[in-house]
């Protein structure tokens, strides 16, 4: 292990770039199809509705609360634990279920019958209107698009246009695959998930930029003639750092997923998925794109030169 960290390995990553292209393309297409067919299970932030935070005087489980809500036909509501004490929960009810005042009355009725009037207290009631939810939905989409454009401009300015394309394409790849998983399993998508996706984009870009920096340094030394070898060398030189950084981050997020409570479950899951795809895409999507684009433009320039000379 010590030798592996001190001496870069000599793995031929670019040998598998075609397999990487095929597998990524298949996964992205499948994710897009799933998203169009199944759509998203949008949370209260986007659909509008009522959120009621309840503090119980004893420990209860989400199943206990759900059984109580069956009495008023609200058993399909989202129930999330607040904290880790097992006595405080947030009940989130879609706007489709009725007006906020009616929902609160129904919840009180259900809890009174199941637990008793003196066995709980309502800490907070929030209402999000349909118009506000629609605005939040648009703002989320705009924020992701704005990030993509800003990254394209920044990387294009700092490196070269082909590097900018190589940096942005994997971000679409990571975001679409993460959203595809959420759509496939019907997991709730709220503002925390959008925040996680934006975080993942930044994390993925960071890993890609570090590899690109090493590629640029090696190009200055060896030139662009053997770009495939340079990219392989650059990835190998950064491999130990990539594995350590991604591994430690992955374990931290995994701990958050396992022990962070229900309210952080989807947020941490989006981070987990994004970190895995982000590490993969920086090697098998971003780097191959740079190699193939450079080879394409070089051949094109050579063909145009021959045509001009003829």
Your description of this structure?
This protein has 310 residues and is of the alpha+beta class. It has two domains: 219 residues, Multidrug efflux transporter AcrB transmembrane fold, CATH 1.20.1640.10; 80 residues, Alpha-Beta Plaits. It is 70% helix and 10% strand. The strands form two sheets. It has a four-stranded antiparallel beta sheet. Strands 1-6 form a two-stranded parallel ribbon. Strand 3 and strand 4 form a beta hairpin.
Q: Can you list the strand order of the major beta sheet?
A: 3-4-2-5
Indicate the low-confidence ranges by residue numbers: none
Estimated helix fraction: over 70%
CATH superfamily of the largest domain, please?
Multidrug efflux transporter AcrB transmembrane domain
Largest sheet: 4 strands, antiparallel
Radius of gyration: 25 Å
The amount of beta strand, in percent, is 5-15%
Output mean pLDDT: 83
Structural class: alpha+beta
CATH topology of the largest domain: Multidrug efflux transporter AcrB transmembrane fold
CATH class category label of the largest domain = Mainly Alpha
End-to-end gap: 57 Å
What order do the helices and strands follow?
Answer: HHEHEHEEHEHHEHHH
Secondary-structure arrangement, i.e. CATH architecture of the largest domain = Up-down Bundle
Number of domains: 2
**How many DSSP E strands?**
6
* DSSP helical segment count: 10
């Amino acid at each position: 292990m010590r030798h592996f960290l001190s001496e870069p390995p000599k793995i031929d990553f670019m040998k598998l770039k075609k397999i990487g292209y095929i597998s990524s393309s298949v996964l992205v297409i499948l994710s897009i199809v799933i998203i169009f067919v199944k759509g998203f299970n949008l949370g209260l932030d986007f659909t509008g509705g009522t959120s009621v935070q309840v503090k119980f005087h004893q420990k209860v489980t989400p199943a206990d609360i759900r059984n109580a809500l069956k009495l008023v036909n609200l058993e399909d509501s989202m129930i999330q634990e607040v904290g880790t004490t097992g006595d405080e929960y947030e009940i989130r009810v879609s706007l489709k279920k009725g007006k906020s005042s009616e929902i609160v009355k129904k919840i009180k009725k259900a809890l009174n019958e199941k637990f008793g009037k003196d066995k709980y207290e309502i800490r907070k009631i929030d209402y999000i209107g349909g118009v506000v939810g629609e605005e939040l939905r648009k703002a989320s989409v705009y924020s992701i698009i704005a990030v993509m454009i800003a990254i394209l401009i920044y990387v294009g300015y700092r490196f070269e246009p082909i590097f900018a394309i190589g940096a942005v394409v994997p971000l679409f790849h990571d975001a679409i695959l993460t959203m595809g998983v959420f759509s496939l399993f019907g997991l709730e998508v709220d503002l925390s998930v959008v925040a996680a996706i934006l975080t993942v984009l930044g994390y993925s870009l960071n890993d890609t930029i570090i590899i690109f920096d090493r590629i640029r340094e090696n190009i200055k030394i060896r030139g662009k003639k053997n770009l495939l070898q340079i990219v392989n060398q650059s990835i190998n030189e950064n491999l130990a750092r990539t594995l350590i950084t991604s591994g430690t981050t992955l374990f931290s997020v995994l701990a958050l997923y396992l022990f962070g409570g229900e309210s952080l479950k989807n947020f941490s899951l989006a981070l987990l998925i994004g970190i895995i795809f982000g590490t993969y895409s920086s090697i098998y999507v971003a780097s191959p794109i740079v190699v193939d684009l450079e080879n394409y433009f070089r051949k094109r320039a050579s063909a145009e030169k021959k045509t001009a000379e003829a």
